[in-house]
Amino acid sequence: MELLSGADMIARALHDEGVEYIYGYPGGAALHIYDALFRQDKVQHILVRHEQAATHAADGYARASGKPGVVLVTSGPGATNAVTGIATAYMDSIPMVVLCGQVASHLIGEDAFQETDIVGVTRPIVKHSFSIRHPSEIPGVIKKAFYLAGSGRPGPVVIDIPKDMTAPTERYEYSYPKKVRMRSYSPVTRGHSGQIKKAVELMLKARRPLFFTGGGVVSGRACEALTDLVRRLGFPITTSLMGIGAYPQGDRQCLGWPGMHGSYESNNAMHHTDLIICIGARFDDRVTNNTSKFCPTAKIIHVDIDPSSVSKTVRADVPIVGPADAVINEMISLVQGRELANPEALAAWWTQIDGWRAEREGKLYEPAAPGEPLKPQQVVEAVHRVTRGEAFVATDVGQHQMFAAQYYKFELPNRWITSGGLGTMGFGFPAAMGIKMSYPDDEVVLFTGEGSFQMMMQEFSTCKQYGVGVKIINLNNQSLGMVRQWQDLNYKSRHSHSYMQSLPDFVQLAGAYGFRAIKVHTVEELEPALEEVFRNKDELVFLDVYVDPREHVYPMQVPLGSMRDMLLTKTERT
Amino acid sequence: MRHIISILLENEPGALSRIVGLFSQRNFNIETLNVAPTEDATLSRLTVTTVGEDKVIEQITKHLNKLIDVVKLVDLTEGSHIERELMLVKVKALGAQRDEIKRTADIFRAQIVDITPSLYTIQITGDTGKLDAFLAAMQPVGVLEVARTGVSGIARGEKVLSL
Ligand SMILES: Cc1ncc(C[n+]2csc(CCOP(=O)(O)OP(=O)(O)O)c2C)c(N)n1
Ligand SMILES: [Mg+2]
């Protein structure tokens, strides 16, 4: 067997695990590891400009590819800078392995230079964490970390590595384990058949059924099976914000997404349904609105791989703990050859749904006339047209995020990449970077806002270094629009600190890094500018689109109301 | 309702802090907590008592089970079980009260395990209610210090919590 130092074991183990990219930033406690990376050429290290960006880039990569993202940071400030990104991944159940340098073992607990108890700091936002106590543990721990991050309900795993564990002078036998077995961890591989039968019987008998699916279907690679099941049954489907793309959004059976800014038809359908078939979504507060008024007439089937998600916020009538793909496939085999008990009820249900659709058709927003300030919604629609709905779309957080989710229609899963659970401003740019590096031949679009973008704009430099050609669409409303909207609605338009008084000239800013940037104010300027943006796949182009700062995101659910209680425009409500 | 949850936990550094952290992070309540190694050196046994509605208890056990370090878990209050707590208590013991305290201790089957001219140290085992009652009985003479272990428990009969 080969003898390797801890640092070399790390580099080797990452390669043996099939890791392509590792996003990181060096520092004292990680220098042995960085030296090991220098002496190999299998795993490519991407030097970001802030550790938070490393985590978001790894996260974007993970969401697009389905494989765990990998991060390497140094101790202390390097590790604490990564915390927001770890929390972001945790809230959205994204597989990630974060290697953190740590001060040498003998210094731990002495408030040594750049010492932070990162295992303690991240405890509530990781799936699990490890501290290396002997270099020989390294291959086994890395194997376990990847296994934990990617299996069951995925999530981030932190590995704390004291510097002496990676010393070049100490060498130990290296072999990478082929399998892991942990007596305390065995994710379920299938759902309870009796429960699935019960669920299917309810589905066949339902009068106003509704599929409600989430990120679990996307991460569980169950989108094809889901589409098959939904089509067979002919039921309507609404996907959570995290689940967008699991079912083609252009399809008639898809009602969009539900919740605070969900579509009128989705929210109404949720309110009136008599059976929710929820798969891989968790009924969070941005979806349910007031849980005591939520879906008054519905029975709930809840499929999730994580038992703690079931009956957490709303009680499930038929709980099913299992992976989405296995459960859906079992459902498919049970519905095969069976007929719906109430086809005429389903037809009437569709008539009702089509009625809701028709009510709002063409009334969602008013596009700008020539010469008027652009509406953010129409910019998203234009980008959708130019990219034929095929791009990877990353977003930041705010109004622009909601507009992107509402108006970019996804036909494929893993292409909608947004921080749903934590709502992290600054997520989008590095996430887009992570995606583009793995899918250089695809179009990667970032919808951002001038507020969010300024939280991670240093990453221009990373894009320059690695030639990352993402397309940045800055929906520039010169304000923290989402905050401003709430202030309009709840604080009599007292715009307390939601106004950006000193915006940079983004064209010059991008120019400083050597990137092309275009400023746009009107409809007439938009189309030609978009053509230029998307002319060359490999080039980063920054489009600074000035949009109407007074625009609000609608529909918007009325606080403490039911699903169907919504503001529809500034002057209309349900 | 009050529940007693016993957990077999990997004997790993940080494992206990994950349990305690979970309770504060999710706003669950801990009444008592005790933890010690088992006959298997790789495992600790931890017992928590907590109070909550069924829905909350369900979430507590689900989240505990989700922790990677938790190997097995049982809610002892779901079946018949034996529950014990140990308490050491120092009380003022002067003059005529010394006999009176001794008599009360006997009634509770408590033992005086240390004495000085002015105080007794008493050891008592039992369920939480019995310990509370004993403390109440000692209140008039003057309780100086209390050390309780927190509840430990085990299922009655053939049921065994092991790997
Ligand atoms: C890191 C972080 N800080 C604060 C917030 C609260 N927040 C949510 S949306 C928003 C405004 C975002 O402004 P911008 O990026 O310009 O997007 P817009 O809403 O204007 O489209 C703020 C401050 C957040 N989500 N994340
Ligand atoms: Mg803005």
Low-confidence stretches of chain A: none
As a percent range, the share of strand residues of chain A is: 15-25%
Largest sheet of chain A: 6 strands, parallel
CATH homologous superfamily descriptor of the largest domain in chain A: Thiamin diphosphate (ThDP)-binding fold, Pyr/PP domains
Instruction: Please report the distance between the alpha carbons of the first and last residues of chain A.
Output: 71 Å
Strand order of the largest sheet of chain A: 3-2-4-5-7-6
Number of strands of chain B: 9
**Number of helices, where a helix is a run of at least 4 consecutive DSSP H or I residues of chain A:** 22
Treating each run of at least 4 consecutive H or I residues as one helix, how many helices of chain B? 4
Task: Quickly count the domains of chain B.
Answer: 2
Could you explain the architecture of this structure?
The complex is a heterodimer of chains A (574) and B (163). Chain A folds into three domains: 2-174, Thiamin diphosphate (ThDP)-binding fold, Pyr/PP domains (Rossmann fold), CATH 3.40.50.970; 193-360, Rossmann fold (3-Layer(aba) Sandwich); 376-553, 3-Layer(aba) Sandwich (Rossmann fold). Chain A is globular. In chain A, strands 3-2-4-5-7-6 form a six-stranded parallel beta sheet, sandwiched between helices. A six-stranded parallel beta sheet of chain A has the order 15-14-16-17-19-18, with helices on both faces. Chain A contains 22 helices and 21 strands. Chain A is an alpha/beta fold and 574 residues long. In chain A, helix 2 (31-38) links the parallel strand 2 (21-24) and strand 3. Chain B has 163 residues and is α+β, with helices and mostly antiparallel strands. Chain B has two domains: 2-79, 2-Layer Sandwich (Alpha-Beta Plaits); 83-152, Alpha-Beta Plaits (2-Layer Sandwich). Chain B has helices at 15-25, 54-66, 97-107, 128-138; strands at residues 2-10, 32-37, 43-51, 70-75, 81-92, 111-115, 119-126, 143-148, 152-155. Chain B is elongated, with a radius of gyration of 18 Å. The interface between A and B is medium-sized, with 20 and 19 residues. The structure holds thiamine diphosphate and magnesium ion. Thiamine diphosphate (TPP) is lined by residues 396-400, 423-426, 449-452, 475, 477, 479-483 of chain A.
